[in-house]
Amino acid sequence: MTDSNAPRRRAPGMSTEQRREMIVQTALPLVAEYGSNVTTAQIARAAGIGEATIFRVFADKEELIQACIARALDPTQLIDHLETISLEQPLADRLLEAAEAVQGHFGRMGAVLGSLAATGRPLQRTPPTAEDGRRVRRDESQAATKTAIADLFQPDQAQLRVPAPAAAEVFLGFMFARGRSPLTADVEAADLVDLFLHGALK
Fold this sequence. Notes:
The chain is mainly α. The chain has helices at 16-34, 40-47, 51-57, 61-73, 76-84, 91-118, 133-153, 164-180, 189-198. It has two domains: 15-73, Arc Repressor Mutant, subunit A (Orthogonal Bundle); 74-121 and 133-202, Tetracycline Repressor, domain 2, CATH 1.10.357. Helix 6 packs across helix 9 (189-198). It starts with 15 loop residues before the first helix and ends with a helix.
């Protein structure tokens, strides 16, 4: 039997970083749907919090949108997925799983950036400089993604015509081109992997 007069223990509150993370995760699909027209009121309702809570961890809507852009571009989730792909599978199966993960990442990225551009907020591109930390992080992310893909090729290096890192770079080029060309947008991932491995000839 419990004591109804005993003081209730409150659940531990979120840290600032945890709350920012929760808000960004909630905001991402809304930004993908509404672009720059999304409101902080919509995001607050979806997150089940008061709108004022957003402004306790973000200076304004612009800072929140910037955080959403950074998350859409961040390949951490993709790399984590690639690193869990079993090397015991045949190479074609490994690459099919990788292709679907890469396309999922590109799709999420394209949805957010495309929606923002469609609502009048094109990405601001500035020439990279030696002090540009964003360029450094982007280069590091791209290198980490290529390394994770190259690791999938490594068990079959003896059968490859090129070193595994080169095969990984070409494979990623295939995936990137698929999302940008209407001629390949409807090609199934399995067919694209087969084309990559065996060429265009029947």
